[in-house]
Amino acid sequence: MPTVSVKRDLLFQALGRTYTDEEFDELCFEFGLELDEITSEKQIISKEQGNVKAQGASDVVLYKVDVPANRYDLLCLEGLARGLQVFKERIKAPVYKRVMPKGEIQKLIITEETAKVRPFAVAAVLRNIKFTKDRYDSFIELQEKLHQNICRKRALVAIGTHDLDTLSGPFTFTAKRPSDIKFKPLNKTKEYTACELMNIYKADNHLKHYLHIIENKPLYPVIYDSNGVVLSMPPIINGNHSKITVNTRNIFIECTGTDFTKAKIVLDIIVAMFSEYCENQFTVEAAEVISPNGKSSTFPELAYRKEMVRADLINKKVGIRESPANLAKLLTRMCLKSEVIGDGNQIEVEIPPTRADVIHACDIVEDAAIAYGYNNIQMTLPKTYTIANQFPLNKLTELLRLDMAAAGFTEALTFALCSQEDIADKLGLDISETKAVHISNPKTAEFQVARTTLLPGLLKTIAANRKMPLPLKLFEISDIVVKDSSKDVGAKNYRHLCAVYYNKNPGFEIIHGLLDRIMQLLDVPPSEEKGGYVIKASTGSAFFPGRCAEIFARGQSIGKLGVLHPDVITKFELTMPCSSLEINIEPFL
Amino acid sequence: MADNPVLELLLRRLEAADGGLDSAELATQLGVEHQVVVGAVKSLQALGEVIEAELRSTKCWELTTEGEEIAREGSHEARVFRSIPLEGLVQSELMRLPSGKVGFSKAMSNKWIRVDKSTADGPRVFQVVDSIEDEVQRRLQLVQAGQAEKLAEKERSELRKRKLLTEVILKTYWVSKGRAFSTSVSKQEAELSPEMISSGSWRDRPFKPYNFSARGVLPDSGHLHPLLKVRSQFRQIFLEMGFTEMPTDNFIESSFWNFDALFQPQQHPARDQHDTFFLKDPAEALQLPMDYVHRVKRTHSQGGYGSQGYKYTWKLEEARKNLLRTHTTAASARALYCLAQKKPFTPAKYFSIDRVFRNETLDATHLAEFHQIEGVIADHGLTLGHLMGVLREFFTKLGITQLRFKPAYNPYTEPSMEVFSYHQGLKKWVEVGNSGVFRPEMLLPMGLPENVSVIAWGLSLERPTMIKYGINNIRELVGHKVNLQMVYDSPVCRLDIEPRCPQTQEAA
């Protein structure tokens, strides 16, 4: 969930009133936001870097507000204030308008070279804007929030904003060999080639995360003006030439990317949020984008869409009984301007360009419910009549767990993920013999594979509890995973039961007795016959030679028991003899 | 107790004594070891109020082994003096005597002896005085007789420096008559025996009282794991509420079931390598229900079922990628898909509690794997009010009655709401679960009828367990670093009963 940090007093100014922290927290809760933290720049710095560094930092109170991940219209102070003001019916939702310029329209021409690296671009102009330091900061911060969220760290969309008065159109969005791109990037004093820049930014804590997006492409995307000035090399960096400042009055905005829908949404959000500060409020100047095939389109779209929703559908989905007129009013409070039409049960809902999250009637239903107040909805019990059933494997597991504890063994709960070493080397096996599934992106060796046996987890549990009085008697009934091409995903869980006995003597007879008890509980008699169980001398890399037996029950091999090999004991950092048993319990379902 | 003469004597002396007597003095008087008297005191104490015994500690002086030898045989210097005959003794010979070296220099400084170096066979030692006073021996004998106080402080410390004397702390009892004092105590029986029962002798015998303030002996037993005890209770609650358990025994899932089937777009951050464990082997799902896959693809990329869709290029290879399931909702999707294939539609209530996996940063409350609890109801005409009503019943069974609901965002539920409960310890509202109504874009491609709604909620198993058992570090609860003592000591789990002391930490 993105967190937006706003200055409290500025927010209250925009809201036209002040709140206590509790009141504001309450308002957030009702609207689906969360007042996550109340802090200040000074507090943040002192927390992260110590009191000394924080000296002189600002004491201005900051509200950190968690915003739902799909509400891009609430990612800046302007949007938050607007959303809450409309919610509280203090203002009407503004109508965002796209207008044609009096003079010539700004043009962005896309060349076909971009197709393989970053094929889409959209653009718009904010004319006669008035920034202050706070507004300017918010403008930059919104771009950063959008980059981190909907733009997927600039991979899907990257935003460039430029001082239009320093440039001259038409603009060209093309792609060139990195060595052929040379310009002075933002906040640098000299020119570099794209190759040099990629090297420089490897050490840049912020920009290094975006390099991979184009790094291995033969051509890098770049935008020029008609004089060959570089506006930006998306998604990495803008040019210094067209850098915007607090004094910038006319802004050219370009969004380039690999996802056309999202590029359009991002552009709509930026212009909708900051057109508030334009001379003609909420009015955005159009720009023309010409595709490589010559097709011309005009942006921003700022499209309003109309949806028809039946009032009884909203009532039925939420569980309330509001009149269509009231429901229309509730929706209007959520920036979805609505009115009752037709037979008096139809509500026409207007979805503004800022609410790209509304893609289905269910989204409209939710907004009606939020405006109604979740906590005002009458709670009722559904009349759904059902008979409960346990999953047979879990039912058996629950029964066995209780009796394992009654037999004096203590239940462990170990990780399903572990290192290759745990299930192979330490048990005297080669990893290729294990049929284990392998994880492709583990952050540490602890998460290399899913376990194929429960034994390593139990031995590690003993190793972590060596100071406990002996004997240690542990068990676990849980799932292991092995590759299995007969399953749709190519892997299958098996429910295993594993028990270990750790003491000054190996205690094979105790583990053997436990097996006899388990079989007694499962109503399997000791017998060579098909319905019974029997153990037969066997070998196993984890066991001491001559001290291992295979367990056969219901006509199949279900596992092994025996005294662990001293090498296994040592590799798990244990010092005492140990015997163990591990079986698959699925044949007993 | 006639078999212990010291005990008898102690009682007789005590009867005659004025006020009380000291155990150490009694030992000296009786000529027995102090420990024997202490033993008698202790067995009398065990009889109840026969005697009163007050523990006292006194400092006293004791001879070392060497000190005892000197008290017996004289000081080294005296022994050297006495060993010299009138005609003197060759010095080298004298030095070979047991007391030779130490005694020689002391005797010299006492001016008891002299050395003549002019003799032909080497230096010879002669007595100088006729007789000597062995002061060291006398003093040590005084200490031995318990009269150390007759020596000056300086004299004692000199003897201590010579390691002949040590100061010890003597623990003695001051014994006086108890309320039930009697010189004739009979032996109390420790336990009832089969012989006593058959002979009836128990009628005439006194029995030693039990010490009820002592702890009993814990039985040898096995123990269930606290987290799994809580799991059992949650299962019980769902079963009481008529929910059927879903199969969840498949940790490995395809991206399709884990994400795509839930209408979670392919560029969603949760599908990032940073958040999800993907598999290298088997890297891809071998089979997917292709008819259904096409409906899902269309809904994502173009919309349908009343939806605008996400309008992006949906890729089958992305859906095939295998992973460790990141939520049990993947299993719920499979269960709902199965339900959708059954015609006509029958309402269903499902639940599951099982492991899920996240490739996230680990800390005191986050592990790479944890358990998720999930409840699902599918029926005609379910409302948000129904969801809240079910949640109220569910949480009431957990002992949580103060609930409120916050609008939230989940990719696959709309409306969505977070469930908050008022935490008495923290004095604030804390999130206890997440819930919502599954999106039509998820349900309709499965083939569920249009007027069927599915409401669902989920929470973690670890968090309520940590609160219940007052555990701050999740590693002490889950995984091999568990504290087995904690497992041994953990009480039974009754979720609707308040914990013994309210926990103040915020878990998970």
Describe this protein with a few key phrases:
heterodimer; A: 589 residues; alpha+beta; seven-stranded mixed sheet; 29 strands; 27% strand; B: 508 residues; three-stranded antiparallel sheet; 19 helices; 16 strands; elongated; disordered C terminus
Description:
The complex is a heterodimer of chains A (589) and B (508). The model of chain A has no long low-confidence stretch (mean pLDDT 94). With 589 residues, chain A is α+β, with helices and mostly antiparallel strands. In chain A, strands 4, 5, 6, 7, 8, 11, 12, 13, 14, 15 and 16 form an 11-stranded mixed beta sheet that branches. In chain A, strands 20-24-25-29-28-27-26 form a 7-stranded mixed beta sheet, with helices on both faces. In chain A, strands 1-3-2 form a 3-stranded antiparallel beta sheet. Chain A has 16 helices and 29 strands. Chain A is 27% helix and 27% strand. Chain B is elongated, with a radius of gyration of 45 Å. Chain B starts with a helix and ends in a 19-residue tail after the last helix. The relative contact order of chain B is 0.09. In chain B, 33% of the residues lie in helices and 21% in strands. Strand 22 of chain A pairs antiparallel with strand 9 (279-281) of chain B.
Radius of gyration of chain A: 33 Å
Total number of beta strands of chain A: 29
The overall average pLDDT of chain A, rounded, is: 94
- What oligomeric state is this? heterodimer
Helix share bin of chain B: 25-40%
Number of helices of chain B: 19
- Roughly what fraction of the amino acids of chain A lie in strands? 25-35%
Helix content range of the residues of chain A, please? 25-40%
- Poorly predicted runs of chain B: 502-508
Largest beta sheet: strand ordering of chain B: 7-11-12-16-15-14-13
What's the alpha carbon Rg of chain B, rounded to whole Å? 45 Å
Structural class of chain A: alpha+beta
| Main beta sheet strand tally, sense and closure of chain A | 11 strands, mixed
Low-confidence blocks of residues of chain A: none
Q: Based on Cα principal axes, name the global outline of chain B.
A: elongated
Number of distinct beta strands of chain B: 16
